[in-house]
Amino acid sequence: MSKAVGNSVVRHRVSRRLRHLMRDRLDRFPPGSALVVRALPASAEATSDQLGGDLDSAFRKLGLPVHGGAA
């Protein structure tokens, strides 16, 4: 994760939040898929709901189903 997101404490917090949000969304991908989630600087100030919404929006653009899960 880029240092533009914040200091190491902030970067690790964002990383943990994204990992938790992705855990509920992994079933949308075929087995063996590889995915990279890039955190932009605004991620440091975003709420979990905002991050989840951003992930769901990106998945919609990819044509993946958006359902349930924590958003």
Please, could you describe this protein's structure?
The protein is built from 2 helices and no strands. It has one domain. It has helices at residues 8-23, 48-61. Helix 1 (8-23) packs across helix 2. 42% of the residues lie in helices and 0% in strands. It is globular and about 35 Å long. It is mainly alpha-helical and 71 residues long. It is an enzyme of class 3 (hydrolase). GO terms for molecular function: ribonuclease P activity; tRNA binding. It comes from Crossiella cryophila. Pfam families: Ribonuclease_P. This is Ribonuclease P protein component.
Quick take:
With 71 residues, the protein is an all-alpha fold.
Q: Whole-number radius of gyration?
A: 12 Å
Mean pLDDT score: 87
Given the C-alpha coordinates, what overall shape results?
Answer: globular
What is the ordering of alpha helices and beta strands?
A: HH
Portion in helices: 40-55%
What is the strand tally? Answer: 0
First-last Cα distance: 22 Å
Poorly predicted residue ranges? none
Strand share of the residues?
A: under 5%
Our count of helices gives 2
Instruction: Count up the domains.
Output: 1
The secondary-structure class comes to mainly alpha
Biggest β-sheet strands, sense, barrel: none
Please state the oligomeric state of the protein chains shown. single chain
